[in-house]
Write a structure and sequence with these properties.
alpha/beta, 10-stranded mixed β-sheet, 12 strands, 34% helix, two-stranded antiparallel sheet, 348 residues, single chain
Length: 348
């Protein structure tokens, strides 16, 4: 075949391809618009179905003051790998001029006035943090200031308070601070604004555990958006202890709710509704939302009879990334049912 003949064949073939493309163009164009709308211009309202790995969830355990079950408090090395955040309890800070006091019961029992410190506890925490996490999470240890009998300065220089906290945290080789102000100490929560900013600016983790009740939440309001996350205590107070702005207004008769795990309004689990309202009201992120519950009915005074299996389902449904319990010892008594149930969500 000569070059002229070859060119003629190519020309005829090209003409056929143009005719085919012309006839198929409307269908291709519609498909293009569909892909553009679903994948790009839909604003994420119609998500693309993809295979995703299970979410990582911080499983948080308070450790060190377990009331009537002190004899069951485990050694740090015996805490199961499901936990990746430990919060040791409790440090007390009477005034800005006073040293920080740390009280712990169980195998590391002692009352320590800084710079005194429990060396064996510190060594065991370091070993625990050095263990590999089976779920690929970071291991963190915080100290909780407050508790039922703890104190915190209601006045004083925030810079002085921050410096004392940092000195304590570094001496214990900790990763940050958990704020658990209760009773009269709640009045000092607002003083922590500059302290939290300084701690987080220096790379420390800061969390808080306000009681899910009106007075504590109001007192914590100014610091909540500044935290890495907040895990309210959904026990000791029933849902009727919370009202606006921590729940929606309107027709929601939330004061009639008696169970944190039930749904009173819009078919949303009661404890989740508080978190969602807090998130919207304070313009916080989903990643700043967490929760805290008692591992057994023995762990807290009231409103503490939780269904752990249902809790895990609710955590999964609403995408909660930080779930904690008061406390590790009570979970141990229950066969670590809480830690296992939530960790199973990361294995699916």
């Amino acid at each position: 075949m000569n070059c002229k003949g070859q060119l003629g064949v190519q020309k005829n073939a090209s003409e056929k391809h143009r005719k085919r493309w012309k006839s198929a163009f409307p269908l291709v164009f519609l498909l293009f618009l569909g892909v553009l709308f679903l994948g790009g211009c839909g604003g994420g309202s119609i998500p693309t179905v993809t295979e995703t790995s299970p979410p990582k969830i911080d499983i948080i355990g308070y450790y060190g003051n377990s009331g009537s079950v002190a004899e069951s408090i485990p050694l740090i090395k015996d805490i199961p790998d499901e936990y990746n955040v430990l919060i040791i309890t409790f440090a007390s800070f009477p005034t800005a001029e006073d040293p920080i006091e740390f009280n712990i019961i169980g195998p590391y029992y002692g009352d320590y006035v800084f710079p005194q410190k429990p060396d064996q506890l510190i060594q065991d925490l370091a070993l625990w943090k050095g263990r590999s996490d089976p779920y690929g999470r970071q291991r963190k240890v915080l100290v909780s200031i407050g508790g039922e009998n703890g104190s915190f300065p209601s006045q004083g220089d925030p810079e002085v308070i921050k410096e004392k906290l940092v000195e304590f945290i570094e001496a214990y080789d900790l990763d940050g601070l958990d704020i658990d102000l209760e009773g009269k100490a709640v009045a000092g929560a607002g003083l922590l604004v500059e302290v939290i900013k300084a701690l987080r600016g220096s790379g420390y983790l800061v969390t808080a555990a306000p009681e899910a009740a009106q007075t504590p939440l109001n007192a914590y309001e100014s610091i909540l958006p500044l935290l890495d996350w907040v895990h309210p205590q959904f026990y000791n107070n029933g849902p009727d202890a919370v009202t606006v702005p921590w729940i929606p207004g309107g027709d929601c008769r939330f004061w009639e709710a008696t169970d944190w795990q039930a749904s009173q309004c819009d078919d949303i689990t009661n404890w989740v509704l508080v978190l969602q309202t807090m998130q919207s009201y304070l313009e916080m992120s989903q990643g700043q939302m967490g929760m805290l519950f008692p591992a057994t009915p023995q762990a807290a005074g009231s409103y503490n009879n939780w269904d752990v299996t249902l809790l895990a389902e609710q955590v999964k449904k609403y995408g909660i990334q930080h779930v904690g319990t008061w406390d590790v010892t009570y979970d141990k008594i229950a066969g670590y049912a809480f830690a296992k149930a939530v960790a199973a969500l990361m294995e699916q």
